[in-house]
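Exam prep: given the inputs below (a chain plus PRP), describe the expected output before reading on.
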Amino acid sequence: MKKDTLHVVSHPLLAHKLTILRDKNTSTKDFRELVSEIGMLLTYEATRDLPLTEREVETPICKTTAPTLMGKKFAVVPILRAGLGLVDGVLRMVPSARVGHIGLYRDEETLEPVKYFCKMPKDIAQRDVLIVDPMLATGGSAAAAIGFMKDFGCKRIKLMVLLAAPEGVQRIQTEHPDVPIYCGAVDDRLNERGYIVPGLGDAGDRIFGTM
Ligand code: PRP
Ligand code: URA
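Solution:
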């Protein structure tokens, strides 16, 4: 794993919340709320390089100039289903973002991603894109999603996940070295069924209560 495109967000609140997510006894309601909160914390880091300009503002005391976002076009793209759990956290940080959806599921035998849905804002090629999914395991789903966004003409793409396996990080860094990865932790490995170890289990099932 190379360090230059991998950003492991280190913060005590995030580490604490991730540990509760890992706990198999955490309820669906708490799991869903925590995914959203961690989504907000990760977005804070993933948007650190958003460009600023200045504008005039009148405070109750005097006129001044103060920083404001340049208003670059931004889109969040969840990988369905589990990625939906992160959208609300991103939108709370960037309320004007557009949302594109990519539906992928992992074939349980081959672990290869299968696409079943795709709907993007019309001007997606002009937007900065943040692809979100709780889990980067083999990296197959994220690599395919990044490939689709590049086919749409997107030039500035970031990937944001809660947990990553070294194998997934490696795959993204090899196939898409231009795409930075933001994550809460990099775990030890994948097991024989492609699950992240120690991980948190099946993120989609835990968010939507379909265990
Ligand atoms: C999970 C997860 C990722 C993918 C990661 O989705 O949300 O999309 O697996 O695995 P990979 O890195 O090996 O591709 P899943 O296929 O279980 O679908 P779901 O979101 O509908 O539960
Ligand atoms: N998808 C999940 O939801 N969990 C994993 O550990 C791996 C892939």
